[in-house]
Amino acid sequence: MALRKRTRTRVYHYTIYVVIIALIVWAVLATDWPTVATQFANPEVAMKMLPGIITVGLKNTLLFTIESFTGGLILAIILALMKLSSIPPFRWAATIWIEFFRGIPALMTIFGFALMLPIALKVKIPGGPVGAATLALIVVSSAYMAETIRAGIQAVPKGQTEASRSLGMSSMKTMFFIVLPQGFRIIIPPLTNEFVLLLKDTSLFFIAGATPLTYELTTYARNGLSTYANATPMVMAALLYLVVTIPLTRLTAWLERRMARER
Amino acid sequence: MNRRPLLAGLAVVAAAAIALTGCASDPGSGTDTPSKAASGPDYGLVQSGQITVCSDIPYKPFEYEETTGSGQYTGFDVDLLTAIAKKLDLKVQFQVTNFDTLQSGAALLAGQCDMGASAMTITDERKKNIDFSDPYYDSLQSLLVKADSGIKSINDLSGKNVGVQQGTTGENYAKEHAKGANLVQYSDDGVLWPALQGGQIDAILQDQPVNVEHEKADKSYKIVETYNTDESYGFAFAKGQKTELREAINKELKALKDDGEYKTIYDKYFTAN
Known about the structure:
heterodimer; A: 263 residues; mainly alpha; 11 helices; B: 273 residues; alpha/beta; 3-stranded parallel β-sheet; 12 strands; 23% strand; elongated; disordered N terminus
């Protein structure tokens, strides 16, 4: 007896629900809850991590992210303009910079700035290990954001430039007062996304080394992991990352929806 | 590797559980089971016929690769454990694990391996989550500096940057005794050493054997002091789980100490110049 198409679809859907529920039930039953509770959600350990994990860890993570983002954004605007320049060496330099730092893991860039530059060039980057790591993230984020900004500039209709030039504005003024502001409006969602990625990349600072006042969230949690021989601090850190990242990604989604409507 | 140890652990648990249930429902296809496992005592091994060992490799001279990428591990822990396993008629399989997940007991509880051997000091804090074997090595801490730095002892470290490894006894010792020093925390020795070479830090305070390696490799650095912290290394086991295996290893460790093989292995790594 052949099933009607709608019945078949329904059977198919119910099967999926049953499988999902079965998997959840199995996971709940199979989990060793007492061990999970003491190892991953231990209130005693959690109390010891507070308030430092927020006042030091989260604070530093946010601080480093904002520093890297701001520095990276400024550098990225310069790179984007170089990339669109009519002078070839500018274009080449920007392309090499962008391809190089987008092509290697952020961890290695941080390692390079914190440990290889001091050995190779005998230079000391101000701010110690964290200063070097922040500089590395500025460089990494500039490479990513430069491409985004270039796309934003190119998305502004040509007529805008033409109108502004015919009103007597210089090409410099046109870029900074007419094109860039409109370009930025378009790229706010991807830039927010980049901010979230950067926030998570600060967890790579551990490779550069850290002093007690500069522990970011992950380093702070890993110290807790060592000190209390318990994984609860890592769970706390994960939750604190989410507290920051989820509102931001929701904001991005909202901005994208709003912009889609305006078009 | 360090970014999501918990998720990785959970994934392994889940995978193991699925694998186990898969095996249970299919009892007929056991033809490729090693015959050795059936004859000898069953220690509840993750993989029969071999002891799977979690270790934060590299940590010279306790566990490292002779040639990077070869997967052939050597070192004091490796040689000692291999000798022990040989007496138990078992193989040894090393598995690289982050030290924090190992010493918190997470990797062991997750069933990633039967035991941990990672130059791990026996402490009361760790004993809460881990069962330790008998001590197999007494460790000293040491201070490594540039030979011409003028630093003679731990009392000269005020205002200096002192590199320590995160979560180690060396770090705790430095916190207590290096007065006025600016402690800079690194994830492992592979980063500490270039940091010292690049002048990011003025000294490294860590386990003596590791600093001995650096002293050997580059004569412009030297160990100026060693510190006895009354600490010993032990092999780690999941709390309350691998009792049989632990007892077997303790027994063979004692046998190796008695018949002189322990000393041969010890001298190979800690007394050669």
